C-alpha cells in the first residue's frame, strides 16, 4: 500500500514524526465544554474545542480531561470550574461576568456610548442655527396689506 | 562584509540625526542650504540602508554562517526564494527591512517635492528622519543584524549550516505578505509627516490633504493586501481553515487599517465642507501611532503570539518613542485649534455628513474594542493581579454586531443627500434596498437558514449591493441620455468623471463580497477520522475516501501525503493530495492542506498523519461555505482602489456651504 521511494531512514523518521494520537478528536460533548475554555498553548487565541494545532500541548490533554470527567458524570459547569481552579480565570475563553472581568465587555460599550455622546455634542455644536425671524407677524401683515393695496391699484 | 554592513547602519543613523538638526535649524534660521543639505542626507541614508540590506541579503544567499542572523534563519537546503525572504524572517532583518522601506519612502517624498511645499518640507523631513533615526538606533545598538558568531567573544565561528527559516514561513504568500504589510505600516508616516508639517507652519487651506490623499490610498491598499495575504496564508497553511484568529499580531495589523479607513472617509468631509479638521489630524496621527504600536506589540513580547518575534530588549524604547511623539502631536494640535476650526455648519442630522460621523464612530469603536481585547490580559494582570483570557469568542461577540452596523452604514451613506435629506427623498431611496433586504432574509429563511447574524449579514449584503448598483445605474442612465453613449461606455465615462466616488463604491462592493464570505462561517462543517485506505466517510454532500498514502524526501524535508478522492452522489468530484512535512533542520511538522475551491463552498482536507495507536491515516475534513468570496472580494477591492488612484476626468470643485447666521467664533481664522 505504501509506496516508498526514498531511503529507509526517511520512512523511520517520518513514521515517528508524523504519527498522531487519536485522542485529539472533538466530539460534540467535548466541543460544548471546550468552547468555554481557552487554549492556553500561548500560540493561538482559540478555545480548547476549536484549537486545531497539531500536537497542541494544552488543548489535547484538556480535551482528554474533559472526556474523562464527562465519563465520570461531571456536569459542564463542574468541569469548567475544575479548569478555573487549576489554571485561574485565564482558563476561561471569555472574561467572567464578575470582578474586573466585567470591564472587558463594559468598556467597549461605554466607549461607544461616549462616541455617540461626542457625535451628539458635535451635531449640536456645528448644526446650522434655525433662522430667526427679524420682524413680528403684525409687521409682516402690514407689508402684505401694502403689497395687496398697490397691486389692486395696478388693476 | 559584516563590518561594512554595521558601519553603513551606524553612518545612516548619524546622517538621519544630521538631517533632523539641519532641517529644523534651516527652517528656523531660514537657511535654504541647510534644508537642501538635510534632504541630501536623506538620500545618503537611503543609499547606506540599501547597502546594508543588500549585504544581508547577499549573506543569506551565499550562506555566510558566521553571521548569527544567517545561521538562525537560513540553511543550505532552503530554496533561493526563501533564503531571500529570510531577510524579514527574524527580528534584526525585519527591522532592517522596516528601515529600508522607510528610507525609500523618504527618498520618494524628497524627490517628489524638490520644488513643491518648500515651507513645510523641513518639517516633513524632520518627522520622517526622527522615525528613521529611532529604527536605525534599534538595529545599530540593540538588535544588530550583522552580529557574528564567536567563541567566548573572541574567535569568529562559521557553523557551516544554519537552522533554516521557520517552516511555516516557507510558503509563497509569506514571501510577499510581510513586505506588503510593512509597505502599508511604514507608508502611513507620509500623511502623518505632511499633516504635522502643515500644522507647524499653519498652512492655509487643506493642502496637506490634497498632497497626501494618494499616499493614503496607496498605503491603505498595501495594508489591505498585507492583511488579506496573511489571512490567505493562515487559511492555507495552519491546517484548520481559519483565516482570522484574533491573534494579537493580526489585531495589530488591523487597528491602523480601521483608523485609516475612517480617515479616508472623513477626509471627504474636510474636502467638501471644511469640517472635521481636528478629527482628521487625530485619525492620521492615530494611524501612524498604531503602526508603531503594532510593531512594538510584535517585537516586545508583552503579548504571546505565534506570529511574534522572540523577546528582545527593544520594548521600553518603543514605549519612550511613542510617549514622546504622542505628547508632541497632542501639544501641536491643541496649540493650533484656532486654525483648525470648522468652516461650515451641519445642516441636518439626516444627511451624508452625519453618516460619515457614524461611520467613523463605528470604525473607531471596532478599533477600540480590538485594542482593548488585545491588551485586556495584560491590563487585568496589572490591575487585578490575575490574567484573564480574551479569546476569539469574545472578539466575535463584540465585533460581529459592530461589523454589521458598519455594513449597514455602507449602504445607507449613498442613500442620504449632502446637507439634508427630506422624508420623500428617504422614502424613495430606501424603498427598494429595504425590499431587497427583506426578500433576501425571507428567501434564506425559506431555505431553512435560521442563524441570526448570517441572515442579517446576507440581507445587508443585498441592501448595500442594491444601493451601489443603483448609484451606478442612475448615473449611467443620465450620461446615456445626455451623451447618447451605450451602456458600458457610459459606465466607464461615469466612473472616469469621478474616480474616487465610483472607485469607492467598487471598494464597498469588495467589502460586501467579503461579508458574504464571513457569513459562510456560520455553516462550517468538519470531521476528524481515522480511516483505512480504501474506506469512505461522509461530510456534508461529499463521500471522502483515502485511496493511497505516499512518502518521500528531498534535501529540505521529509513528506508524506494522502491521495484523497471526494465524490458527490456517487460521481467523482475531486482528487486532493494533502501533505505533511517534517523539515529536517527544525524537525518541525507542517501541514500542506489540499483545498478544492468553489464559489459556494471549499472542500478542505488536512492530512494530520498516521494514528499513533491505530497506524491509520488521520484525516481532518472541512466544508467552508462561501470562503472564496473573501478572496474574490479582495480583487474587487484592489480594482476599486486602483480606480480611486486614476485622476478624475472632471476636476471637482466643492463649493463650501455658505456660512449664514453663525457667530463669528465659527468662522475660520484667516492668515
Structure, explained:
The complex is a heterodimer of chains A (155) and B (671). With 155 residues, chain A is mainly alpha-helical. Chain A folds into two domains: 24-94, Helicase, Ruva Protein, domain 3, CATH 1.10.8.640; 100-154, no CATH class. Chain A is 55% helix and 3% strand. Chain A has helices spanning 8-17, 28-34, 59-71, 76-87, 102-126, 137-154, and strands spanning 2-4, 19-20. Residues 1-24 of chain A have low confidence and may be disordered. With 671 residues, chain B is α+β, with helices and mostly antiparallel strands. Chain B folds into three domains: 1-164; 171-343 and 357-410, no CATH class; 523-625. In chain B, strands 4, 5, 6, 7, 8 and 9 form a six-stranded antiparallel beta sheet that branches. A four-stranded antiparallel beta sheet of chain B has the order 3-12-11-10, with no helix packed on it. In chain B, helix 5 (91-112) crosses helix 7 (172-187) and helix 9 (207-237) runs antiparallel to helix 19 (628-645). The radius of gyration of chain B is 27 Å and the shape is globular. Chain B starts with a helix and ends in a 26-residue tail after the last helix. Classes of the chains: A mainly alpha (155), B alpha+beta (671).
Amino acid at each position: 500500500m505504501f509506496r516508498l521511494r526514498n531511503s529507509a531512514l526517511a520512512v523511520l523518521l517520518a513514521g515517528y514524526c508524523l504519527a498522531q494520537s487519536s485522542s485529539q478528536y472533538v466530539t460534540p460533548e467535548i466541543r460544548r465544554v471546550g468552547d468555554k475554555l481557552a487554549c492556553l498553548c500561548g500560540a493561538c487565541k482559540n478555545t480548547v474545542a476549536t484549537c486545531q494545532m497539531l500536537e497542541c500541548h494544552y488543548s489535547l490533554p484538556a480535551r482528554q480531561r474533559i472526556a474523562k470527567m464527562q465519563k465520570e458524570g461531571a456536569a459542564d459547569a463542574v468541569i469548567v470550574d475544575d479548569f478555573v481552579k487549576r489554571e485561574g480565570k485565564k482558563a476561561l475563553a471569555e472574561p467572567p461576568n464578575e470582578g474586573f472581568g466585567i470591564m472587558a465587555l463594559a468598556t467597549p460599550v461605554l466607549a461607544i456610548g461616549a462616541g455617540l455622546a461626542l457625535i451628539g455634542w458635535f451635531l449640536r455644536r456645528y448644526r446650522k442655527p434655525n433662522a430667526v425671524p427679524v420682524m413680528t407677524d403684525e409687521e409682516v401683515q402690514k407689508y402684505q396689506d401694502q403689497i395687496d393695496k398697490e397691486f389692486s391699484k395696478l388693476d | 562584509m559584516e563590518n561594512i554592513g554595521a558601519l553603513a547602519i551606524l553612518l545612516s543613523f548619524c546622517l538621519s540625526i544630521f538631517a533632523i538638526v539641519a532641517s529644523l535649524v534651516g527652517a528656523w534660521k531660514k537657511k535654504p542650504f541647510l534644508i537642501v543639505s538635510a534632504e541630501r542626507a536623506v538620500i545618503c541614508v537611503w543609499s547606506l540602508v540599501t547597502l546594508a540590506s543588500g549585504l544581508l541579503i547577499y549573506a543569506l544567499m551565499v550562506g555566510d554562517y558566521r553571521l548569527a542572523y544567517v545561521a538562525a534563519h537560513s540553511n543550505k537546503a532552503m530554496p533561493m526564494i526563501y533564503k531571500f525572504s529570510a531577510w524579514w524572517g527574524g527580528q534584526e532583518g525585519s527591522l532592517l527591512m522596516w528601515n529600508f522601506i522607510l528610507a525609500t519612502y523618504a527618498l520618494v517624498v524628497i524627490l517628489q517635492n524638490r520644488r513643491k511645499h518648500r515651507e513645510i518640507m523641513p518639517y516633513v523631513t524632520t518627522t520622517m528622519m526622527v522615525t528613521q533615526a529611532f529604527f536605525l538606533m534599534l538595529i545599530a545598538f540593540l538588535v544588530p543584524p550583522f552580529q557574528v558568531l564567536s567563541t567566548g567573544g573572541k574567535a569568529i565561528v562559521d557553523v557551516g549550516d544554519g537552522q533554516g527559516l521557520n517552516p511555516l514561513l516557507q510558503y509563497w504568500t509569506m514571501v510577499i505578505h510581510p513586505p506588503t504589510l510593512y509597505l502599508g505600516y511604514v507608508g502611513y508616516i507620509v500623511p502623518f509627516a505632511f499633516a504635522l508639517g502643515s500644522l507647524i507652519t499653519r498652512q492655509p487651506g487643506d493642502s496637506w490633504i490634497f498632497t497626501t490623499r494618494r499616499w493614503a490610498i496607496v498605503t491603505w491598499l498595501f495594508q489591505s493586501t498585507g492583511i488579506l495575504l496573511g489571512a490567505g496564508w493562515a487559511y492555507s497553511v495552519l491546517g484548520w481553515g481559519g483565516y482570522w484568529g484574533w491573534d494579537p499580531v493580526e489585531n495589530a495589523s488591523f487597528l491602523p487599517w480601521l483608523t485609516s479607513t475612517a480617515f479616508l472617509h472623513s477626509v471627504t468631509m474636510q474636502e467638501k465642507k471644511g469640517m472635521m479638521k481636528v478629527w482628521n489630524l487625530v485619525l492620521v496621527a492615530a494611524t501612524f501611532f498604531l503602526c508603531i504600536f503594532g510593531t512594538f506589540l510584535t517585537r516586545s513580547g508583552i503579548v504571546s503570539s505565534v506570529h511574534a518575534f522572540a523577546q528582545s530588549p527593544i520594548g521600553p524604547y518603543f514605549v519612550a518613542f511613542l510617549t514622546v511623539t504622542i505628547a508632541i502631536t497632542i501639544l501641536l494640535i491643541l496649540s493650533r485649534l484656532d486654525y483648525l476650526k470648522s468652516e461650515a455648519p451641519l445642516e441636518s442630522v439626516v444627511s451624508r455628513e452625519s453618516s460619515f460621523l457614524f461611520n467613523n464612530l463605528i470604525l473607531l469603536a471596532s478599533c477600540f474594542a480590538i485594542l482593548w481585547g488585545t491588551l485586556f490580559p495584560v491590563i487585568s494582570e496589572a490591575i487585578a493581579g490575575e490574567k484573564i483570557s480574551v479569546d476569539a469568542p469574545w472578539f466575535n461577540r463584540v465585533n460581529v454586531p459592530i461589523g454589521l452596523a458598519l455594513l449597514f452604514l455602507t449602504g445607507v451613506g449613498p442613500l442620504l443627500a449632502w446637507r439634508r435629506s427630506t422624508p420623500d427623498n428617504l422614502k424613495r431611496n430606501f424603498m427598494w434596498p429595504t425590499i431587497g433586504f427583506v426578500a433576501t432574509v425571507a428567501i434564506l429563511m425559506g431555505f431553512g437558514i435560521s442563524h441570526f447574524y448570517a441572515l442579517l449579514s446576507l440581507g445587508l449584503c443585498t441592501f448595500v449591493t442594491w444601493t451601489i448598483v443603483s448609484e451606478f445605474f442612475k448615473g449611467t442612465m443620465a450620461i446615456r441620455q445626455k451623451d447618447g453613449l451605450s451602456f458600458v461606455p457610459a459606465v466607464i465615462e461615469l466612473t472616469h468623471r469621478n474616480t474616487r466616488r465610483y472607485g469607492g463604491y467598487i471598494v464597498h462592493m469588495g467589502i460586501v463580497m467579503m461579508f458574504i464570505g464571513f457569513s459562510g462561517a456560520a455553516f462550517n462543517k468538519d470531521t476528524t477520522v481515522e480511516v483505512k485506505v480504501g474506506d469512505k466517510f461522509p461530510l456534508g454532500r461529499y463521500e471522502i475516501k483515502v485511496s493511497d498514502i505516499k512518502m518521500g524526501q528531498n534535501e529540505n524535508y521529509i513528506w508524506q501525503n494522502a491521495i484523497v478522492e471526494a465524490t458527490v452522489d456517487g460521481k467523482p468530484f475531486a482528487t486532493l493530495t494533502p501533505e505533511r512535512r517534517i523539515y529536517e533542520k527544525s524537525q518541525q511538522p507542517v501541514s500542506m492542506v489540499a483545498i478544492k475551491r468553489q464559489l459556494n463552498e471549499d472542500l478542505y482536507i488536512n492530512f494530520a498523519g498516521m494514528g499513533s495507536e491505530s497506524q491509520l491515516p488521520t484525516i481532518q475534513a472541512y466544508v467552508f461555505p462561501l470562503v472564496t468570496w473573501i478572496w474574490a472580494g479582495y480583487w474587487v477591492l484592489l480594482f476599486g482602489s486602483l480606480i480611486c488612484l486614476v485622476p478624475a476626468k472632471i476636476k471637482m470643485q466643492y463649493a463650501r456651504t455658505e456660512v449664514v447666521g453663525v457667530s463669528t467664533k465659527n468662522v475660520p481664522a484667516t492668515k
